[in-house]
TrEMBL record:
Pfam families: ABC_tran
Annotated region (Disordered), positions in chain: 262-285
Any one GO molecular function term: ATP binding
The protein's name: Phospholipid/cholesterol/gamma-HCH transport system ATP-binding protein
Length: 285
């Protein structure tokens, strides 16, 4: 079957694009990472980006959040060309999204509550008492116990660190969330807890979520659309069911291994047992 383009394979979401990447080229010396890469993320969807090692997933994320400048091409986020912004304009735009970093990205000298409250202190004039209350609320939303707010990053388990990073990403009620490997390093129970957390937060905030991941279970359980990177570009995009029907060798190589088949079988079994799982309460794992 033909490989789908990234301009909309899932008919249910006809919302406008909130991220548009066009003809993106990225090089490190003679090594080409992206070669005329195109990508479109629609408002309100959970959009995952996958690919083998060295395909440029993390580099693409860094380019979208303005931590690395590509060699050529354009990136529009929230109707703004991010490559033409002044430093002050970029500072304002960054307040409209939140980032959950793979390893937390929290300040080790601050407890969880102060880490979560830091964006509010930097970007608002709210009183300290109100900031602490809002931080406590985000900590609760992330599935952590209230007392976790007084703990420091080094005192947290891997799953707790992911949730604390999520709480900070939510601090400014962002329109757009970027999640970098949200389940990496977690045991199956912890990873399943993050799956449920992401679905619940998506339902609550109705935000657009972009995820870098290699977790096949996560892809089946959470994502609306998945973009597969390979050969310097997006070689296929669609729901997991749509990707399962595509013949591109990169896609088949990524999803046809034992883990891929097991994740698909589990997703199909769960779909048969439970037609709708979004919006259920989540607990700390």
């Amino acid at each position: 079957m033909p490989v789908a383009t990234d301009q909309g394979t899932t008919a249910e979401n006809k919302n406008p694009a909130v991220i548009e990447v066009r003809q993106l080229c990225t090089r490190f010396g003679s090594h080409v990472v992206h070669a005329d890469l195109d990508l479109h993320v629609r408002q309100g969807e959970i959009y995952a980006i996958v690919g083998g090692s060295g395909t440029g997933k993390s580099t693409l994320l860094r380019e979208m959040i303005m931590l690395h400048r590509p060699d050529s091409g354009s990136i529009q986020i929230l109707n703004t060309d991010i490559q033409t912004l002044s430093k002050a304009e970029a500072h304002v735009l960054r307040q409209r999204w939140g980032v959950m970093f793979q390893h937390g990205g929290l300040f080790g000298t601050l407890n969880v509550r102060d880490n979560v409250g830091l964006p509010l202190r930097e970007h608002t004039d709210l009183a300290d008492t109100l900031i602490d209350e809002l931080a406590a609320w985000k900590i609760t939303l992330s599935g952590l116990a209230p007392e976790a707010g007084l703990q420091y990053p080094t005192e947290l388990s891997g799953g707790m660190l992911k949730r604390a990073s999520m709480a900070r990403a939510l601090a400014l009620d962002p329109e757009l969330l970027f999640l970098d490997e949200p389940t990496a390093g977690l045991d199956p129970a912890g990873a399943a807890g993050i799956d449920t957390l992401v679905r619940s937060l998506h339902e609550l905030y109705q935000s657009t979520i972009v995820i870098i991941t290699h977790d096949l279970d996560f892809l089946w359980q959470v994502s609306d659309r998945v973009a597969v990177l390979g050969e310097g570009k997006v070689v296929g995009v669609g729901s997991m069911a749509e990707l399962a029907e595509m013949d591109h060798p990169v896609i088949r190589g990524y999803f046809d291994g034992p883990r891929g088949r097991a994740a698909q079988a589990q997703a199909q079994t769960q779909a048969g047992d439970q037609q709708h799982t979004r919006g259920k309460p989540w607990t700390q794992k």
